[in-house]
Amino acid sequence: MDGTFLRTNIEERQEEGTKVMSTLTKWAELVLQKKQERALTMKVNPIDCYQFHVKDLDKKEVVNLHTQECTCKEFQAEQLPCSHVITAAQDRKSALGMCKICARCVRNKS
């Protein structure tokens, strides 16, 4: 294998990496995008400054932004915000940002 090929390949990947604005992987970005679309259909009622009742069609879930938990358990299992958490964070206009409440395992390495 030619050293020029490897050097060119590495340079192309580095250039692509500099274009990435998110700290999340592409997979995590796509998953979050779908969850954000689903979150648009939900209704939210605050319990206190950290907890929220989120109504998703016929179900009600409770989100706690402080402990980063949702009663649907999806957030804890995937370590990515579920659509209920996204709805609650948007309602609170959370300064946390979605990237801060995503697990390290789905972030790009710096």
Mean pLDDT: 79
Helix content: 40-55%
From the spread of the alpha carbons, the general shape counts as elongated
Number of domain units: 1
Question: Which structural category do the helix and sheet elements fall into?
Answer: alpha+beta
Oligomer: single chain
| Strands side by side in the biggest sheet | 1-2-3-4
Put the structure in a nutshell.
This protein is an alpha+beta fold and 110 residues long.
Which terms summarize this structure?
110 residues, 16% strand, Znf_PMZ, metal-binding, 5 helices, 45% helix, 4 strands, Znf_SWIM, single chain, zinc-finger, alpha+beta, four-stranded antiparallel beta sheet, zinc ion binding
What does this protein structure show overall?
This protein has 110 residues and is α+β, with helices and mostly antiparallel strands. It has one domain (22-106). Helices cover 45% and strands 16% of the residues. It contains five helices and four strands; from the N terminus they run ααββββααα. A four-stranded antiparallel sheet has the order 1-2-3-4. The longest helix has 17 residues, at 3-19. Residues 50-93 form the SWIM-type domain. InterPro entries: Znf_PMZ, Znf_SWIM.
